[in-house]
Amino acid sequence: MTVHTNAFSEAVLSPRDGSPAYMTGFENSFATEAVAGALPVMRNSPQKAPLGLYAEQLSGTAFTAPRHSNKRTWFYRVRPSVLHGRGFREVHAGLIRTAPCRDESRLPIAQLRWPPIVIPDEPCDFLSGLRTIATGGDAHLQLGMAAHVYVANRSMADRYFYNVDGELLLVPQHNLIRVFTECGVIDAGPGEIVIIPKGMKFKVDLPNGPARGYVCENYGSYLTLPERGPIGANCLANPRDFLAPVAGYEDKETPCELYVKSLGRLYVTDLPQSPLDVVAWHGNFAPVKYDLRRFSPVGSVLFDHPDPSIYTVLTSASDMAGTANVDFVIFPERWVVMESSFRPPWYHMNVMSEFMGLIYGVYDAKPGGFVPGGMSLHNALIAHGPDAEVFEKASRKDLVPERLSGTMAFMFETRYPLSATAYASQLELLDGAYPDCWDGLARKFDRS
Ligand SMILES: O=C(O)Cc1cc(O)ccc1O
Ligand SMILES: [Fe+2]
Questions:
Q1: Dihedrals φ, ψ of 145, to 5°?
Q2: What amino acid positions are annotated as catalytic residues?
Q3: Which of 52, 98, 259, 412 is the most exposed place for a label (fewest CB within 10 A)?
Q4: Looking at ligand 1, which residue's alpha carbon is closest to its atom 6?
Q5: Which residues, by Cβ under 5 Å, contact ligand 2, an ion?
Q6: Fold of the 10-61+69-292 domain
Q7: Per the confidence metrics, is the pTM higher than 0.95?
Q8: Any known ligand binding at 354?
Q9: Any idea which architecture 296-430 has in CATH?
């Protein structure tokens, strides 16, 4: 597969190992230029910007949003986006769905689980290979989320995309993706995540061949780091571990396509050049990546199984305090040391909806059936918990300290009930036998 790194400005990729260069910090205000002198000093909008570039602001929040949450970035680019934003025609959205999308499937309420979606042989890239599994809330109202999976066997190359309906949280599960954005280049493999802001143009290339991963499309308030409460000033995800790309542009004057999803509809326009032509930028509305293995878990050190909210990496708040529009929660490697306790997740009915995936390894509540690349959906108030075998073993085992190694599961947890799409409800894809994993749970009531 051709990787279009040569067309990208040299500053972006390290000559040493070909990897992108980054700046550190979460929600920082960054300033970066791919060509010396491209970034204006002191003013955002000079009468004539350096190198004759166009100045353009991308607003991530209302102009008047409070300072602590205000997001915007200034681009200094070869052409302004007005030249990228004309002549759109609607095209079929393929398997992409956007909330509200509640009636595509009439599956009865149940615990749902799917095996990994196989990467097809037919050509597909990140965009054409994007399939929606479930949606909740309403993109028109900027509430809720969608859970998607991407399967891709070719780079987007000359195809570009931006999403109006929400920011995108990419969770690679198989193989590396190289995300070229207006702000620069990000590489991410399994165990890493990428956040692409709403409205930011990008493409995904595959430097190492076919790839698969999960995507949370967040229609609501932007993902941010959760409060740590009594944990204090450290642990969980630390801001300095988030990486934003240095500026890099694609100097490509050959035909390209720009796709846009807006209110669930997909549009395309033809461009005579790449829309990734930002030579310098500054601001705090930027894509970032984060290595989930840098998350410092805090857990129970004496007894009982804490709520999984202790493993929240990022949260999107809703208007109800403590009740997330979406939480991105992980189940990373960790020691489990609790005494006199049932250590796996407890049986529960959660008013929030839980979409789970497994990046690698084994998930302790479901060592069988929930495999890397697979996913499960336990919707609002659908009972679930460890399978029968795990229950028996965990109830009897000798409680020595144990290390759960080589594992990384995650959950998109939302206050909005999730509706499976017609695609995800197809019988051949859905694991109809999933609820049988609880069949062996016998009556328990020892009165004697
Ligand atoms: O259902 C799941 O596997 C996710 C989960 C894990 C846990 O440790 C506690 C609650 C919970 O929903
Ligand atoms: Fe759960």
A1: -160, 170
A2: 305
A3: 52
A4: 345
A5: 354
A6: Jelly Rolls (2.60.120)
A7: yes
A8: yes
A9: Sandwich (2.60)
